[in-house]
Design a protein that fits this description.
This protein is mostly helical. Helices cover about 75% and strands about 0% of the residues. The protein has a two-stranded antiparallel sheet with strand order 1-2. Helix 7 packs across helix 9 and helix 9 runs antiparallel to helix 13. The longest helix is centred in the C-terminal third of the chain and has 33 residues. The protein is globular, with a radius of gyration of 27 Å.
Amino acid sequence: MEHEFRQEDQQRAWKHNSICQKRHRPTDKILTCLMYLSAGIAISIFAGIVGYVFYRGASQVNWQFLTKARSALTQTEGIAGNIINTLYIVVLTLLIVTPIGIGAAIYLNEYAKPGKLVRMIEFTTETLSGIPSIIFGLFGMVFFGITLGLSYSLLTGALTLSLMVLPLITRNTQEALKTVPQSYRDGALGMGATKWHMIRTILLPSAMPGILTGVILSVGRIVGESAALLFTAGSGYYLPKLGEYGEGLIQKIMESGGTLTIELYLSMSKAKYDIAFGIAVVLLVIVFAINILTKVLAKRFDVNRK
């Protein structure tokens, strides 16, 4: 009997202390409402900004606006030259920074022994990511533009942006490598593979979703940057001259070139608000496309890995 009474008491105590039986306190409901309110405000602000930009600029975007360069002789407005300059900046920056960023992450995660050197490199990388972009622009103008004699050019802008996005790619690659189980490394090394062969054939393919995400996010930052490029790449808006053998495409790298964000800034400063909002629409579409591409590629790599 005593045993049965003890069981009943334990059951009553369990029911009394059960989460399901506990009543929600008023503060819980208030905090829940505040969280939903905060989320609603954030979504509303985002929708308002995007909606207003599209409302003001969608009518400005047409085929001529996207495929023609601005010309004072024909009185035409277009951003084709700025789109080409943006593509140049993106490609050049990724060609410079991607091997360096991924290589640095592999060294820090797989080769370097934990110690003061690694901590100093990681601290430097994190500090580098927090420096205002205008300071990068001043450094790029003085070092790449004046000291190295590159002047205002797409290459100067790409070298400057490489310093800006290097921490992003390095840290993302590091975190992606850390997600690969240690058993993958031990198994490959135990089967006689060299360390570099293990990294090249096992680690990098397994960490590819995270690495790719970092690269694509860095593209988004490159596309949206303006302050650093204003001091380094200049504001040229002409289309590249191909030449007889296409040598103009290479020469364009050493010429001044304004990206979409630079042209947006200049249009606003000249009170050409319709053109500025049209460029803003194009930039928003590019950013949305980058985010969608990131999610699609990440899911595809996850499926292939499984």
